[in-house]
Amino acid sequence: MAKFFLGYQQMKHLKTYGVALLILLGVWGLGSLAPILLPVIEAAPEGELLQVFFTLSLLFLLSYFVELAAKRTGLPPFVYALLFGLFTGPLLTPITHNPSLLSAIVALGATLILFGGGLEVPYKNFVRLSPKILSLSFIGLGLTAVLFSYSLQIFAPLTGATLGMEGLILLGAILASTDPAAIIPILRSLRFTNRDVKEIIISESAVTDVTGTLLTSVFLTALASGVALTSIPGAYGLLISPASGMVLLKEILFGVVAGGAGFLILDSIHRHKKNGAREESGDIAFFIAIPVLTFFVAGVFGGSGYLAAFIAGLIMHLTEHLHETEHFFNNLIDAFLKPIIFIVLGGLVSFSELFQYAGIGILSAAIFMLVLRPLTVFISLSPWMIFGKQRMPLREALFIACVRETGAIPAVLLVTVVSSGHATEMAGILPIGLWIIIATLVLEPPLTPWLAKRLNIGECMTTANNLPVLPLPSALFASRGHSHLRRLPQVFDWAAHHGIRRLSVLLCPEDDYTPDFEETLRDSTMRLFHRLNERLRTEEGIELETQLFIQQGMLHKNIEQACNKDSSVTVLFVGKGVLDFRLGEIKNMHVPFYFLD
User: Fold this and answer.
1) Terminal alpha carbon distance of the chain
2) Could you tell me if 117 and 259 lie in one domain?
3) pTM of this structure
4) What is the pLDDT of residue 10?
């Protein structure tokens, strides 16, 4: 039986990876048709326009297959996007060889990605942890950029790679920012003993995206104005020169002001919705327009549009009153814009270039993950590790040091260098960047849960195998335990008026779970059960049979377990917040949902 089971599992994995392989082969076959397809399209009436339309439609289709292949194999979607770009590079030339169009696509993608990065960061936690976050995002990023440039200068000749000084400097600035976009789902599935660790990682990644962009823009502006970057100290000396200092100050000042104005506009519609106005489909267009508008306004006055978009998102705190809008926006970013950026980046590099720089690319990735990241994290966080009453434990700093994904914004900056026309003078900058992105995205995410457990700072949240829900007809109310007391009376009234006399309440605090919090939830919920049943007995002469579950694990996983096809649940009550990013993960639902305000 064990042998048969092992064989079945092997066949299942073979089928899964076989489908992914077929998708890759299909994309490669499509890319090989470029010499036939592009001349035919070009020869048609309005051929130039049709080429652009064909390439855009190809990007949309490839984004779909990126998500399909990633879900089947568990590899980060960005890896597939890069491979798809490498395979279809010749078909992407109508965009990749059009600097204006390429710049517009990349700038729009980066603006919305940074705005989304700001939304990911809880503002109150950001303010509370800002000294550590800013230390990592400024001191840590600066050290990483400088040290990485020096390491390339030392090791590139040893591997036979040729890389000019300007390429060394720009690669250090571009790749210095961290981007755990691929690891955020894993972080959400972990329960940390100290939640600040997770908040620092997510916040640092969002801020370093901005600081890395600002640093790169300083160097690109210097190159555009004819300033030669002849040495690493000389390049970073530009940051303290009066001319560059004024440019940087202007970018930050007007970027912050434009971002603050964008927040005020967004907050006005948010307050309008909180006062009872219904969420409309047009809200999505308004929501997307604001970060683009802040980019424009900041740029007009010489500010950083990327910083403006990030600030607008950082200050904004969304509630369930705009849940559909936020849900659409998150899907737009994760399933569309980010894959397109990586596909385009892959399309700018050939396989021959990738293999030519494999030695220095792989070595650089190892240096990034094993040497530079730990070193810069320990230096940046050393004041909180050495001084103070509540010192940061070494294991927490070590875990932060081991999160070194290089993702969307570095990819955007690499493409920006190409669209600016500087890449032709910097051979090797794209393939080396690609190797580092691929290595960090493939190697680090799978190791994170193991490392969290090994360092004893967190654990994977487990889900109960079976929830003995009350027999039919019964209702189930599921919550993360922060708003259930306000909503429970509504559930009681609904059940009583619809002839349901049995109610189960499922509370999953997720990473807020502690034994003390469980006890608090249990006491407050049982007291409310008693009061609500007393009211029902007095007013209607009935009483509900109640049952309370306080589970570890993710809410959506516990809901899925409780509402399987053999479940006795008749109706499921959830808050509208479950739509934020959970709905696509709640599978095999066999009961109707009732969404509570």
Assistant:
1) 50
2) yes
3) 0.75
4) 60
